[in-house]
Design a protein that fits this description.
Shape: globular
Order of helices and strands: HEHEHEEEEHEHEHHHEEEE
Strand order of the largest sheet: 3-4-5-2-6-7-1-8
Number of strands: 12
Structural class: alpha/beta
CATH superfamily of the largest domain: P-loop containing nucleotide triphosphate hydrolases
CATH topology of the largest domain: Rossmann fold
Helix content: 25-40%
Length: 287
Amino acid sequence: MLNERQLEELRYGWDGVRARKEQIAPPGDWRTWLLLAGRGFGKTRTGAEWVRSQVWNHGRRRVALVAPTAADARDVIVEGESGLLNIGAPKERPYYEPSKRRLTWPNGAIATTYSADEPERLRGPQHDAAYCDEVASWRYPEAYDMLLFGLRLGDDPRVVVTTTPKPVKIVRELVADPTTVVTRGSTYENRANLAPAFLAQIIKKYEGTRLGRQEIEAEVLDDVPGALWTRGLLEELRWPVGKPVPDLSRIVVAIEHQHPSCGPHKQRRSSSAEGRAYRCEADHSSL
């Protein structure tokens, strides 16, 4: 016969109880765990359970919770069905103060919610762990940079990032970062917990389509159908690092004004005496 603690673990446990292996944090000395997965995979539950485990089992005391908007942070990460207020044993759940954007656990750990729409709010606060949701949909990806500058408490600050992938710069950079561990998953892997009507409608309509490959199978689709220049072609033609660049006979600079917080976007195109054209890497600077 199971005792009270065992019954509680059976009802509210995660690792070894409800979690699939792809939903358990990988071992190793990583800085970022990037979970690229399709709709309905269980990304939010995975992120929330990681935060819960860090607070109770790994001594985390200052956690950042960052979502595309303030409403997303509240409605999904905190109050959602798989949010922090609805997982774990009731006596271990945090107390939520919406006006302060703060969750406080019985052991004293604190998590603060942030909107990626307001990157400057992450300038100053310090954290020892962070959970970032749907980064591919962040309007201002520089919010991630501001978060990293404040991720400096404790001996081993870490961040979990969950998102349905899109071909955007922040996703490509995270995948390429040597300190990132990537886990991939599809909608199909969580069939047992999804409404049959959802599966019947979504799979029937989108399976095999380009949108389905992104939203269901979690593929990062870099290229636009019919595009003259593909990412693979551009990478193939990239000038080798360290190889001397020939003398340039003409340089053209194009400036595209973006959001005031980003500054102008500058691109340079050059041509050599041999008649070859070169595109220089774009950069951001205040001109």
